[in-house]
Design goal:
Number of strands: 0
Radius of gyration: 20 Å
Helix content: over 70%
Mean pLDDT: 83
Number of helices: 19
Largest sheet: none
Strand content: under 5%
Structural class: mainly alpha
Low-confidence stretches: 391-398
């Protein structure tokens, strides 16, 4: 893999750390800013909704700029947003700072995915995406537990100061190693790029991502109270357990990339089924420390095994003009799933059966995503029969 791809991974590490680190700080933020746990959980929803807005807006606004320039500008926004989080005097300002930080997220991963696939041979595209997303897994494996430990030892603000420093370092790595491509393809007219949103399979791919991934955040948003209030672990034990989740993400991310390289749509089906099974098993595993740790590790594997297959599915269906936009929108779709999951989890805790039932609710959401994937595959088969889709295409191979 080219070193430029590893530079993209460094940027992904910084952004992933700030997205996920709040899960290990919910109780500290709740206590310090005098808000409820579910209100603190909305900091995740606010970030995710900011990604959903920022992805299409910034992708369109920067479509005529060199991709390296775009990536550096986005990393600058990310760094300044985290600085604002560290300085936020109250809950409202922290929410606003989280939203500002999130604006860079979708476009960074969307443009970064396109850059990554252009750095390797066609048969390695899914693996290239997976390598870039390894930055997210590394963030969860290293950044989130370290951030949770910092928050426990020195207060939650120290975590955001650390993430600000990560942003500065990631900016430097991107500036040095990502090549500035000469003669980049001139963007298509805006009308042609927006036309990608009229493709039913692109829309189905986005819906599949939102609902398929939402189940992860029904549970993961509230992992700290789950482990402390249901499993019975101490607050200091949460960080080591998050290391297990991060290790699972690393395994699942690479596994998903390899499966998608072989058969993209089959990988979508298999990973969504596995995720639904793991989520459904939560109620039976979260009660004791050993089984809870096993569950957290399997959740990491199953959740990120879905990422490369679903991202590649959208990229394939959005080929041509509008691919950058569709790629960024799918990152936004992942984060809409995060927001939906965090909200549904909060409703389940406050107005439903409570923390114990989060796994069942999460599994149902993921199964809805699987149903959309089956619908999308049915449309593929119809298109093959009418000759609109080549029988030897990537979707057909699935």
């Amino acid at each position: 893999m080219p070193i430029a791809l590893l530079a993209l991974t460094a940027g992904a590490f910084g952004i992933g750390t700030t997205e996920f680190v709040i899960m290990g700080l919910l109780m500290q933020v709740s206590t310090d800013l005098q808000v409820s746990i579910t209100a603190a959980g909305l900091l995740i929803s606010g970030y995710a909704l900011g990604v959903a807005v920022g992805a299409p807006v910034l992708t369109i606004a920067t479509r005529k700029l060199p991709r390296k320039t775009v990536l550096l500008a986005l990393m600058a926004i990310f760094t300044l947003g985290n600085l604002a989080c560290a300085l936020a005097p109250n809950y409202e300002m922290l929410m606003a700072a989280r939203v500002i930080t999130s604006l860079a997220h979708g476009t960074f991963f969307g443009v970064g995915s396109v850059v990554a696939t252009g750095l390797v041979a066609p048969e390695r595209r899914a693996s290239a995406i997976a390598i870039m997303f390894t930055g997210l897994t590394a963030a969860t494996l290293l950044g989130v537990p370290a951030g949770a430990w910092l928050g426990l030892q020195f207060g939650w603000r120290s975590t955001f100061w650390a993430v600000t420093l990560i942003g500065v370092l990631a900016f430097a790595v991107l500036a040095v190693f990502v090549p500035r491509v000469k003669g980049e393809v001139k963007p298509a007219p805006l009308r042609e790029e927006l036309a990608v949103l009229a493709r039913p399979q692109v829309l189905l791919g986005l819906a599949m991502t939102v609902l398929g991934f939402a189940g992860v955040f029904v549970v993961y948003t509230y992992i700290q109270p789950l482990l402390t209030q249901v499993t019975g672990l101490s607050e200091s034990a949460v960080s080591p357990v998050l290391l297990v989740f991060g290790g699972g993400l690393a395994v699942g991310n690479i596994l998903g990339g390899k499966l998608a390289d072989r058969a993209p749509m089959a990988a979508v089906f298999g990973t969504l089924v596995a995720l639904a099974v793991v989520l459904g098993a939560m109620q039976f595993t979260i009660g004791t420390p050993f089984t809870a740790v096993v569950f957290v590790g399997l959740l990491g594997v199953a959740s990120f095994a879905t990422v490369a297959p679903m991202q590649l599915r959208v990229l394939e269906k959005a080929s041509g003009a509008g691919q950058n936009l569709a790629s960024s929108l799918n990152i936004a779709a992942f984060n809409l799933g995060n927001a939906l999951g965090a909200w549904v989890g909060g409703v389940t805790i406050d107005h439903g059966p409570g923390l114990h039932a989060l796994g069942w609710v999460a599994a149902l959401l993921t199964l809805v995503g699987l149903a959309i994937a089956l619908w999308s595959r049915t449309l593929d088969r119809r298109a093959q029969k009418t000759g609109q889709l080549p029988a030897d295409g990537a979707s057909a191979r699935a």
